[in-house]
Specification:
There is one protein chain. This protein is α+β, with helices and mostly antiparallel strands. The protein folds into 2 domains: 178 residues, Jelly Rolls (Sandwich); 134 residues, Jelly Rolls. Helix content is 16%, strand content 39%. The chain is built from 6 helices and 25 strands. The strands form 5 sheets. Strands 1-22-19-24-17-16-15 form a 7-stranded antiparallel β-sheet. A 7-stranded antiparallel β-sheet has the order 2-3-4-11-6-9-14, with no helix packed on it. Strands 21-20-23-18-25 form a 5-stranded antiparallel β-sheet, with no helix packed on it. Strand 2 and strand 3 form a beta hairpin. The longest helix is centred in the C-terminal third of the chain and has 14 residues. The chain is globular and about 65 Å long. The structure holds fe (ii) ion (FE2).
Length: 324
């Protein structure tokens, strides 16, 4: 089946995304959870959910609201905090994360959250069997009836082994800036400036077991990037601004909160219609190593750059043909 080229996370109805609401005992909403894309391949890549983590219910303290403390044995979770704020409890520490932050959780990191306000919580995962087949499960459940999802035998047959529950967490308060898992584009690990583009490394590959990395392209309005034949599916998340996708002779607009999917090998271009922040959430291109070597060549041996570049691009899966 063809993948949807553009998915607007701010418009679930238009994007065909189904929402499931969970409630607290007092009837207030706890979360509105939506499976956006199931995972692909042995690492369950390109797996996305979009959740509203609802404000803590009336009369409940943050500590009581943080009882969902858990870890993932093998799964990696990356969340864009796209509105509101929440307490994050992480391995004995607590901090406040807010709109603009990005949370990168590695396996075995014990975590729970308590929302101070409603939080738009956009999740991008790999190696996480909890959400890897959510859409497939929902499709079967829609045929068998909604109660089937509560059936222990149905749950067991899904084979998820990744989730491990823990006790309600104790904690000390710390600033978010001191917690490595809390990322923000204002504090990139590395930054590379080009005339019409700034590339920021937000999550390096070594924090993702070598499987993915998270890189942000800050495109100035009018910038156009063209890709040739690329070896993997490409997946981007537009967090700010607006870009035009050109693919197979068609043009589509992706604004704020849109996911862009491009089938493997298919040449395409992205053009910033206004200043835009575009994250490579598929994470297959080895941008960080490529940019470090590119910068080294430009600094130490500029005369070798033109000759060395094709091999460098091939090694790191960089299929960009032009930045205009
Ligand atoms: Fe989790």
């Amino acid at each position: 089946m063809d993948i949807p080229w553009i998915i607007d996370l701010d418009d679930h109805e238009a994007s065909g995304i189904r929402d499931f609401t969970r409630y607290h005992a007092n009837g207030e909403r706890e979360e509105v959870m939506s499976a956006v894309m199931d995972g692909l391949g042995p690492h369950g890549l390109y797996n996305i959910t979009d959740t509203i983590m609802c404000k803590m219910p009336t009369g409940v303290t943050p500590e009581e609201a943080s009882k969902m403390n858990h870890e993932h044995r093998l799964g990696f979770e990356l969340f864009f905090v796209d509105s509101g704020s929440m307490y994050l409890y992480l391995e004995g520490r607590r901090c406040i994360i807010k709109e603009g932050d990005i949370l990168q959780l590695q396996p075995t990191q014990m975590h729970s959250m308590a929302s101070i306000e409603d939080v738009k919580w956009r999740g991008f995962f790999h190696d996480l069997d909890s959400f890897n087949t959510s859409i497939a499960v929902n499709q079967v459940a829609s045929r068998l009836g909604p109660d089937v999802k509560q059936d222990p035998a149905f749950q067991k047959a899904q084979g998820t082994k990744d989730h491990r529950r823990h006790e309600q967490p104790t904690f000390v308060d710390v600033p978010a800036e001191t917690v490595n898992a809390v990322k923000n584009p204002a504090r990139p690990l590395a930054k590379f400036d080009f005339p019409c583009l700034t590339v920021k490394v937000i999550v390096p590959r070594w924090e993702n077991w070598g499987v993915t990395e998270l890189v942000l392209g800050e495109m100035k309005a009018g910038t156009r990037i063209r890709w040739g034949y690329h070896p993997c599916r490409e997946q981007y998340y537009v967090r700010r601004g607006k870009v035009k996708l050109s693919l197979f002779g068609e043009e589509r607009i992706a604004g704020k909160s849109c996911v862009i999917n491009v089938p493997m090998l298919a040449p395409f271009s992205l053009e910033a219609l206004e200043d835009a922040e575009v994250y490579d959430v598929g994470g297959q291109t080895e941008w960080f190593n490529f940019l470090l070597d590119y910068h080294s060549l430009r600094t130490y041996s500029p005369e070798r750059l033109a000759e060395a570049l094709p091999a460098l691009k091939e090694r790191d899966g960089v299929a960009i043909e032009a930045i205009e």
